[in-house]
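Q&A log
Question type: sequence-to-structure
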Amino acid sequence: MPTRRKSALLAQGKERRLDGGRQAWRVRLYATASGYQVLFKAPAADGEPWRRVLRRAATEEEARAIFAQAEAALDTEQPTPTSTREKATQTIAALGAAYIADSQARGKAVRTIEGRQSRLDAHIIPAIGDVPVGRWRVEHSRKVMERASATLHSTRGKEDLRGAMAAMRKLAWRMGWLDRSIDPIDGLEIGRSTVLHGATTHYIDPRLRPETRQVLAMARGADALCGPDGTDPLMTRLPLFGTKIRVAAYGGLRLGEQNGLRAIDVFFERGYVQVNGSWITPRNAPGFRGPVKNHVIHEVPLPRSLMIDELLPRVKELLVLPPTASMQQVLNAQEEERQRRAKLALRVGDSTLTWWNCPIPPEEEQWLFVNTVTGLPVKPEMHNDRWHRVRRWVDEHDPDNAWPRTIVYRNLRHHAATRWFHEELGEPWEVVAQYLGDKLTTVLNHYVRAGEDALRDSVSKLSTR
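Response status: OK
Response body:
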């Protein structure tokens, strides 16, 4: 009968007493007849004694890597090496689920999470979903990009997809699913787009910033189609669409911020609206009023004619005041409503709640812009449909000021930033960033091109020669 081969000790770590026992122990690496083994102790659930752990490896190189990982994990109180069975469950698909759960735990916006889920479902999981995270390499990342190239044609879309994989890589490092020496994104190149000299990759071409005459034409068209004299019931469901366009073009509010405006957010005595929330419409779920983007509350000045002639009558209606009510009566009613909400917020016992974010049922809110059928802010899909109806009407009735098809509705924000705030009012970019609720670097990257002023001066001088 053949004798059984004894295990040979190849390496052992430092002496440890982390488990609170009387006897010291070490991480040990053995060579056996069937391969290699690493023995150590790892913490169990809270209050339970540490358990003995055995990790097997087929090669000495792999075994020594597990040995080093166990030593480092015990030194820094990090997760110890996982078993082969556990690693089999740590796939890219499982990492994607953890990525979404982490996004929710960090309080990311609903639309942001939906976008990340869409990239996972459409591109990442179908391509490499069954790949173990520990074996994730740049070849797999390239496979994702190759698959996505069939439907993603813009550089921005490809950058967003690469950004999602970069975030998943960072999470895999943090969870211990992927060794930090391995970077599955390193070497993943995305074709560069041509960039104007002196501009960043996020620079918005002036041709995509609408002219004031085009904005006014669209607002007049919306007034005609959506006003009380309109004949199309699909358009009259949005009675203040023209006013909404002017608020976007002269205030720079995002669409969700426009939809989230209420009677108490308009400060007539100060000449501005406070942007403190956004109407959010998740997929297959009812809408709700959530936080403003980046959680940055900001004030936006609006032209007095827009405030007094268009917003004031609507606020009086919402506050159940007669059309002849004085300005002071309106201000008093607004302040009473703010104080009522502040008291409601105090009863909740949450110190983060105040008058502007006190939870109120959407049906009871005093929305400035609503769909008259639902009494709630309009969904983006309906909003865009009505916008294009107005655009086609302006094409036919005011062709000299027609709205270019290459410019989308959200570019009204670009008009507010450049044509109105910066050029017309002469505000510096620092102030423009405050009005938009953006970082200064973001605004500069979007609208400022280095050397543009010098170029304009040179062209002016040459035009006289």
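Response note: The beta strands are 8-12, 28-32, 35-42, 51-57, 266-267, 272-275, 278-280, 288-290, 298-301.
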